Amino acid sequence: MRISTNTIFDKGVARMGELQTGLAKSQQQVSTGKRLLAPSDDPVASARALEVTNAQEINSKYAINRRSAKDALSMTEGALQSVTTLLQDVKTLIVQAGNGTLTNSDRQFVATELQGRYDELLGLANTRDGVGNYIFAGYQNTAQPFSATATGANYTGDQGEFKLQVHTGRQIEVSQNGSEVFQQISSSHTFVSAPGTPATGTISKGTIIDSTQLTGSGYNITLDATAANYTVATNATPAVTVATGAYASGQPIQFQGLEFVITGAAANDVYTVRPTATQSVFTTIKDLIGVLQGPVSSAADKTKLTSGLSVANENIDKALDHVLTVRAGTGASLKEIESLDSLGEDLNIQYAQTLSDLQDLDYVQAITDLMKQQTALQASQQSFMKVTALSLFDYLS
Fold first, then answer.
1. pLDDT band at 236 (very low <50, low <70, confident <90, very high)
2. Is 221 helix (H, G, I), strand (E, B) or coil?
3. What three-state secondary structure class fits 259?
4. Could you give the CA distance from residue 78 to residue 72 in angstroms, rounded to a whole number?
5. In the beta sheet, which residues pair with residue 278?
6. How far out from the chain centre does Cα 280 lie?
7. How far is CA 362 from CA 106, 352, 370, in A?
8. Measured distance CA(176)–CA(283) in Å, rounded
């Protein structure tokens, strides 16, 4: 079979081009250290490498979220630690105020110091983070959540708690709403009062004058048809009358360790008194200040002071336990983040190893292939020169 000169040249050039392309690819692999330079090199490995890379990037995003969560929780923990110390100081002042040798002026000094503690607690409840957001305001974190009132503090935040995705299928709360931390504190010695139906007068907030007499019952205070007398009965079924007496507007009504003042009542008025399950720590401190500011000049006043200090001490204990419980939850979240950080680092190592197995070059094999390709290209070039020199024109003189 006769092979034309054009065919010889075409075949030789094509083969050298193939060898040069392979050699260039091998050189690029050696220089980059990567086996996969394009998806076509190994479609299956390329697809798997893309999946692993995406997982690695997501894991990195989780690590960023964990750092943010750790910062937020650490700030919350710092504020709660200060609250804990403050409440312990309040307990110390309660014990100090119970000293029987103190005069009315001495108790005023303690009340003044407690006012300072109240102001400090209000500042802690309005703590801001590094970007100016209030950490105890729920989702309304751009507005101050707590403002002082005569009876405690008003909360204008909401019940929201921010969460961050810190791992696959795991979200962690990184904030606490102020209502939960400072207001929803259990209390067995708190009472609320309100006009019933019908009622035309006003009734004061209940004052505990002797905590040893408390029963935890709710009551109805009813005036008779002439508004001259009142009757206090439990609001259970059947109702049990616990006190009666003559009514005078603005004069205290006392029964079972409690004291209320009704002003402007009319005939057949009904007023409801019931125990509450929770009380704000701000209200507890304000009530304590009120107890200490009251003069003690009689045995009844002394009993009222002792009872008020006992109630305040118990409520501060419950507030302290509540804050410590919140701190424990915060600490548990920080501990979990540390564990997730360790897991994330392990995953990064695994992802890196998998990508290395899929993409990285085996240098021993690659250099061997490179040398083979160089030898083949040189041989191809030499043989091309020999074959193209077989033309008859080369023998014409």
1. confident
2. strand
3. strand
4. 10
5. 186
6. 20
7. 85, 16, 12
8. 20
The pLDDT of residue 146: 95
Q: Is pLDDT at 273 greater than 80 in this prediction?
A: yes
Nearest-angstrom CA–CA distance, 353 and 41: 20
How far is 139 from 166, CA to CA, in rounded Å?
A: 19
The residues, any chain, with a CB within 8 Å of residue 266's CB and separated by 6 or more, are 200, 201, 223, 227
Contacts 24+ apart (CB under 8 A), 130-136: 130/71, 130/75, 135/72, 135/75, 135/76, 135/79, 135/175, 135/176, 136/79, 136/175, 136/176, 136/177, 136/178, 136/181, 136/182
Find out whether the peptide bond into 43 is cis, omega within 30 degrees of 0: no
How far is it, in rounded angstroms, from Cα 295 to Cα 297? Answer: 6
Secondary structure, 3-state, 274-335: EECCEECHHHHHHHHHHHHHCCCCCHHHHHHHHHHHHHHHHHHHHHHHHHHHHHHHHHHHHH
Residues 6+ apart with CB under 8 A from 15: 380
pLDDT per position as a tens digit, 218-227: 899 999 988 8
Q: CA dihedral defined by 121, 124, 125, 131, rounded to 10 degrees?
A: 170
Give dist(CA 164, CA 172) in Å, integer. Answer: 6
* Of residues 207 and 179, more confidently modeled: 179
Cα separation, 193 vs 34, in Å, equals 78
Q: Are 68 and 164 in contact (CB under 8 A)?
A: yes
d(CA 291, CA 183): 20
Q: Whole-angstrom Cα distance, residue 333 to residue 76?
A: 11
Q: Is residue 84 within 8 Å of residue 324, measured between CB atoms?
A: yes
